Structure formats: C-alpha cells, structure tokens
Amino acid sequence: MTSTTAFYPIGTSGVPWGQTEKQEWLSRQVRHRSYADEVLARIERLRGRFDVEEYGRLDYADGMYPLCAIRNPDWRDDLPMALVTGGVHGYETSGVHGALQFVEQHGADYDGRANLLVAPCVSPWAYERILRWNPGAIDPNRSFRGNSPAGESAALLGLVAPLLGRFVLHIDLHETTDSDETEFRPALAARDGKPFEPGEIPDGFYLVDDSENPQPEFQQAIIAAVEQVTHIAPADARGEIIGSPVVAPGVIRYPLKSLGLCAGITGARYTTTTEVYPDSPRATPAQCNDAQVAAVRAAIGYALAH
Predict the structure, then answer these.
(1) Where are the strands (E) in the chain, listed by range?
(2) Is residue 22 part of a domain?
(3) How many domains does the chain have?
(4) Residue 61 belongs to what domain range?
(5) Which pLDDT score, from 0 to 100, does residue 303 have?
(6) pTM of the model
(7) pLDDT tens for residues 53-99?
(8) Does residue 279 lie in a domain region?
(9) In a domain, 9, yes or no
(10) Residue 42: exposed, middle, or buried by beta-carbon count in 10 A (0-12, 13-18, 19+)?
C-alpha cells in the first residue's frame, strides 16, 4: 500500500518503487502533443534532400513509435563523421526542434566535408508526454550501456555500433528546466527511495564536457557561438552549476561513459551535452532552438578545423 510522501505523491518515503508504484506513475501520464505531426512530418519533408532511415521501433502498450535518423547524401568513407542527437529526454523540446532546424537550414552545408548522422528524437513516447523517463520509469540518459534496459537507448546504440571508431564529434542536445526541480528530481528521489534535496536551476545555457576526455577549447568555441544567441548560465554562489564545479564559463564536466550518458556512446574526440534554459524570462522558444543550432554548427566547425 502506497502513501503520499512530503515530496512526491507516489510511494513510501525511503522505499524504492516496485512495479505497483511504477504502474501508478505510468497511469498518471497524459499525451500532450503528437510525435507524428510535430517530428515525423518534418522528417518526411526532408526526404529527397537527405537520406532518412528507420533505425528502430518502440512498441508500447499505447502506441508504436518509429525511430528515425537523417543522413546527408553521398557519404564517403574518407570524410569525418559527426553525430547529433536530440530528445533523449522527450520533454526537452529545443533538443528535438533544434536538431531538425539544424538539418533543415544547414545540413547541406557539410556535403563533401563531413558525414552527418542526426537522430532528432530519441525518446518519442516521452516527447508526447513531456517526460524525462520512458514508460518503465527508466531514464534513457542513464542507460547507454550494454544490455540497456531502455529500448530508446538500445536502439541508438545499435545505430552507431557499425560506425564506432569513425566519429570525430557527438553533440547531444538537452535542456535544463524548472520542472527538473519541481517534478523530475523529486520523482527520481521517490523512485529510488532516497531523500529529495532541493537544488538550484541555472538561468542560461551551459555545456557538459567529458571529465574522462576534457576538451576545453572545443567547449569554449561552442560557448562563444551560443552567447551571440542567448545568455550563458553563471555559476552559483558555490561556484557550481547543478552541483558540479564550473571549470570554465558555462562549462561543467561529467564522466559521460561511466554514467551511461548519450554523449559517451561514440568514443569521439569531441563530445558535449548542451543545456538550454527555456524557462528563462530572457529566452524565447525560438532563441532556444537557435542556440541549439548555433551550438551544433560551432561544434562541427571546430571539429573539422582541428
């Protein structure tokens, strides 16, 4: 029997969720938007200019979701390869639409210069429900490892597996939102039976570098491009952003691969995770998409030049 806790309405404080609690959580989720209309339709319009492939299909109780990737045409084995991913967390809207906008506006710029592989919406079920997790209450962005429990993560790993060793760049597009603090972090604490410790949401754009392969000049090239579009998140009073030390303006570091994060899947020399703040009074949805596009362009430009 579950009871309401002080910080989340599902489960018993201090006790990790079982299947009953996960089913209760799932029963509360509501579809708010259409992956077919908002994402697949845009991808379909790219056919002819780009190669589109279905790299997997998620078959959930309330629907089936094709997973699509976009490639620029005429791939060549002698060209460097760049991976762009968005929507690993489905609620992080500018990751999805920023990736699509990049392809629509700039994908053709790299013909003959780089092989582009873009997976704009890794988690379509969560995109529709504006959620962080998949239906099993699993975070895909902690699940990029062998025998992944998340179908979203397993499918993307399968897409890149034949290409490992060829990537020079992977940029994974994310957002940090106010709902991280009001919903998703409390839910995580409740699911895992841990106390919820309130944090602070940074106001602005920042990047997550790889602590196991830091590339500070690469990260700063992206920051320099993005600050022409939107503001960069400052460090808090402790010199941190979301609990991690700020190592350069707008940059923190995580061990990407060991945490099972998407940006750690390729072994590329240049990797980063973008974090846009869409709830800022200083940023519009269009600015958030534009910031993601600026980040991708700067990342690819730097990788190709170095």
Answers:
(1) 51-60, 63-71, 81-86, 115-119, 167-175, 206-210, 240-241, 244-245, 251-254, 270-276
(2) no
(3) 1
(4) 34-305
(5) 98
(6) 0.96
(7) 999 999 999 999 999 999 999 899 999 999 999 999 999 999 999 99
(8) yes
(9) no
(10) middle
